[in-house]
Design brief:
By secondary structure, the protein is mainly alpha-helical. It has five helices and no strands. The protein has helices spanning 7-33, 35-62, 64-88, 94-107, 119-125. The termini are far apart.
């Protein structure tokens, strides 16, 4: 039973390879699409998955006949959404996903293509952060 003596080595190597590959993919997508877009779209996908799982579970609890009908195509959608739900954690975090998505939409400007040196100007133009970010930043030499 099991995968053999080298299973933990294979598992660690596969996990490391996926992490390295995911890092390069995320660097490419962040530079191409921007952080704000990716955060908002990720939040929307998580909210859709939460609603899908909640509806599916509620339907399952209401009727066994409907459950049998929806099992034909609904299990693949449910398994994908339930997997995302398990990665996100417990149901206590569900409201925070909605809060995070609204916060990113309202309070974070898009930083795509903006160099780090010019980031302060971007924050000064934002409707909320311009009241907090100082106008003049002075650097003292030691």
């Amino acid at each position: 039973m099991g995968f053999g003596a080298n299973a933990s080595l294979y598992s660690s190597a596969l996990t490391a390879a996926v992490l390295v590959g995911s890092t390069f993919i995320s660097i490419a997508t962040v530079d191409r699409f921007g952080r704000r877009f990716l955060l908002i779209s990720g939040g929307i996908v998580m909210i859709i998955c939460l609603v899908t799982v909640a509806i599916k579970v509620e339907i399952w609890e209401q009727s066994r006949t409907i459950k049998r009908i929806l099992n034909i195509g609904g299990d693949s959608v449910l398994s994908l959404c339930f997997g995302i739900r398990m990665v996100m954690g417990s149901s206590r975090l569900d409201p925070w996903i909605i809060v995070m998505t609204i916060f990113v939409y309202a309070f974070l400007p898009e930083t795509k293509g903006v160099p780090v040196e010019e980031m302060i100007f971007l924050w000064r133009k934002h409707w909320f952060w311009r009241t907090i970010v100082p106008e003049v930043v002075t650097y003292e030499t030691v």
